Amino acid sequence: HFVPNITFGHPMVECLRNSIGQDPFFDMHMMVSRPEQWVKPMAAAGANQYTFHLEATTNPGNLIKEIRETGMKVGLAIKPGTTVEELAPWANHIDMALVMTVEPGFGGQKFMEDMMTKVSWLRSQFPSLDIEVDGGVGPDTIHKCAEAGANMIVSGSAVIGSDDPRSVIALLRTVVAEAIQKRSLDR
Fold first, then answer.
1. Residues 6+ apart with CB under 8 A from 60
2. Which of 16, 71, 130, 132 is most buried per CB count within 10 Å?
3. Per-residue model confidence as pLDDT tens digits over 1-14
């Protein structure tokens, strides 16, 4: 395993897809060693996007090609210790870049604000690329993510631990939408 725990695999994805239909977009953030082994099972289960860690494979180019051949979109994630320059050569071959703002594997960690320089750099170099942040994102940190250029957000503990999850989700969406609108007006 790339991280010591695994949340759920392709059987859960298949069950969810069968239960809730084709509308939800399933982005599978695969924090696993040898991510190549799960591409076909995730595609068959109904995943829409397969996001793997650059640090977990020796041949990102082949993996990107394999994911594309299944019809899924491609996401490429980097841990805090990986430079954004290591991701850059692949940016024109992927649909989404994921900048981890905590060490992957466990929820509830403190947001690493210094990762926002990676998000800003990616946004300036690849303006149309989807950029996601994952880790410690909630009402107190969402503005930093959105202003840096993130347009996709993962928020676990802040949503699940809230007394009003719907309002937290609405706030996160609003802040990101407003930042996207401001960026388009600034051009």
1. 52, 54, 76, 90
2. 132
3. 565 556 678 888 89
Specify which residues 98 forms β-bridges with: 77, 132
Q: What is the 3-state secondary structure (H, E, C) of 65-79?
A: HHHHHCCCEEEEEEC
How many angstroms separate the Cα of 137 from the Cα of each of 5, 91, 143, 184? 20, 23, 10, 23
Alpha helices in 21-141 (DSSP H): 39-45, 60-69, 84-87, 116-125
What six digits make up the tokens of 32?
A: 């696993």
Pairing mode, strands 96-100 and 49-53? unpaired
pLDDT at site 104: 81
- Sequence-distant (6+) residues with CB within 8 A of 81 are none
Structure tokens at 117: 């320089």
CB-CB contact of 77 with 29 (8 Å) = yes
∠ CA 48-96-5, rounded to 5°: 70
Q: What's the CA gap between 17 and 42, in Å, rounded?
A: 11
**Contact indicator for 21, 46 with CB cutoff of 8 Å:** no
pTM over 0.85: yes
Q: What CA–CA distances, in Å, run from 113 to 22, 144, 145, 152, 160?
A: 35, 8, 9, 16, 22
Residue 80 burial (CB count, 10 A): 15
